[in-house]
Prior knowledge:
The chain is of the alpha/beta class. Helix content is 30%, strand content 27%. It has helices at 17-30, 50-62, 99-110, 133-144, 204-221, 271-290, 300-309, 323-335, and strands at residues 6-9, 34-37, 66-68, 77-80, 87-92, 117-123, 151-159, 166-172, 182-183, 189-199, 227-233, 239-240, 243-252, 257-263, 313-318, 339-344, 355-360. It is globular and about 60 Å long.
Amino acid sequence: xxxxxxxxxxxxxxxxxxxxRVSTALSCLLGLPLRVRRIRAGRSQPGLRPQHLSGLEMxxxxxxxxxxxxxIGSTEITFTPGKxxxxxxxxxxxxxxxxxxLLQVAMPCVLFAASPSELRLKGGTNAEMAPQIDxxxxxxxxxxxxFNFTFDCDIKRRGYYPQGGGEVIIRMSPVxxxxxxxxxxxxxxxKIHGRAFVAGAxxxxxxxxxxxxxxxxxxxxxxxxxxxxxxxxxxxxxxFGTGSGIIIVAETSTGCLxxxxxxxxxxENCVRNSDRVGIEAAEMLLGNLRHGGAVxxxxxxxxxxxxxxANGVSxxxxxxITLHTQTAIHFAEQxxxxxxxxxxxxxxxxxxxxxxxxxxxMGMINSSL
Length: 369
């Protein structure tokens, strides 16, 4: 059996958890036994962290697979997938590890299950170094559903660093096949909105300060558009722990979505820091609007696995190709029959750093439907 295992080097390119997410999801979908060595070799604390392990255990359980080497700190695993099944699947990082990263690994798999699935994901909903759950709902969901499927996201409780304690329930039905997407027309920005939140011990004034600072920053560059950022205090029964942050979304005339977000650091609740958080999110959004692509820098890599699985040619116009995207393409090509080409865009103002990502998808078919 070992002779047939696909060997993955977890230390190349991005060198982090993304390699594990893409390769184990594709292993599960394609029925390919896998060995991943040098897991997260590029990180200061190499090996599996709790969120990576809970993601692996969920994938193992949802396909009745076999996982060896699945413990915290492990730098090598072997995974032998079984048949993907629907039903309820639970993943609990027991830390502030991101529920959104758990979703990234599970979603492609349950799309090709035999019956509807419910994913109960526990951990951090608004975590550093990962998409916030608000990004998943406001940006990822409407765009990813263009591949011709839908999902429901129910935020039961928000959880913040360092304890986590959040819970999100995702419900979705399987599909026969994914449709390709075409996200190449940017359009003009028609609407900018967002939410600045506080939870736990923090006063609503911080949310208002974050929102005001963000609006001022955006107005300097985009003066003619109303910017609506709502300050929110999360209800105590729907949030665990203390946290603060902001997400701002720009919508365009062609349905493109771009975001900027930032989180308050623990122990910081003075005005200067809430201003900094608001400005950081606004500058991230403006940076995503300047490059002329049709997706933001954070959606880019999340689209790759779906483009690889879809039936037909997908095209996406983006800003500079991130290392996460290059990594996702590398492993998607290694494990599937999909082929990607990335070309620099020449069709507009040459000062803009824009690219086309094109993929001839493998046309994965759900044999259970």
